[in-house]
Amino acid sequence: MLIHGFTKTTLLDYPGKVAATIFLGGCNFRCPFCHNAPLVLAPEQEPAFPLEEILHFLEKRRKILDGVCISGGEPTLDPDLRSLCRSIKALGYPIKLDTNGTDPGLLRGLAGEQLIDHIAMDVKSSPEHYASLTGMDGPDLDRIDQSIQWLLTDPLPYEFRTTVVRELHTEADIIRISQWIVGARAYFLQAYQDAPQVMQPGFTAYPKEEMEHLCDLVRPAVPSVRLRGID
Length: 231
Fold this sequence. Notes:
Structural class: alpha/beta
Number of helices: 8
Shape: globular
Radius of gyration: 17 Å
Number of strands: 8
CATH topology: TIM Barrel
Order of helices and strands: EEHHEHEHEHHEHEHE
C-alpha cells in the first residue's frame, strides 16, 4: 500500500476527536476545484510513507490520539483499504472515511465488518451538473445515490458536505442537493479556499453573508445544515 500523505495531529478532520489523517492517492473524479491536484493526477510522483512507520507512530500515540481519518484522493479505489482499516482497528482506533460515494458496496461492506465508524461523503453538485463538476462525461449517479440513500438510513455516524464555488454552484444547485439528501443528520456547506495545488486556478468563494443565505435555502429540507471554513 502506498500512503502519500500523513498528518500526525488534527482537530479538524474527525469531528470531536484528536486524530491523525492518512492520505491515499488517485481519484476517479477530476473536480476542477480540487485543492490537491498532484495527489489525484500523479500520486506515483508524490512522496510515499511506509505503512509500518505510520502504524508504529499510531501505536505510540494511542494515549494521545482519539481516531484516524482516511482521506485522499478517493480512498475506496485502493485495493488495500480494507487491510489498512483492519490494521488501524487492531490498534484500537475508530476510523473516519472520506469518500465521494462512488462505491456503495464497499462502504456497506466496511461498515458491516465494523471497520469504519464515521463517513464523510462529498456531494459535488446537483445531479444535473455532476458531470461538469467532476470532470467526468458520465459519472454513475445511481451508485452515488445508493451511497446517499444508505447513509440516510443512519447505519453509522456520517456527514454530507459540499464545497461551494461561486463560479460553479448556483442557488438552484444548492437547493437541489438539499432535496437529494433531505433529512440528512449532518450537512456542511464548505467555503471554497484557493490553494497552490488546485486543479484549475481562478475560482472564488461566496462571502459569508451569501453562504449564510445558502444555508437558509437548504434548511427547509436539511435543518442540520451548517457552514464550515468561514470565520
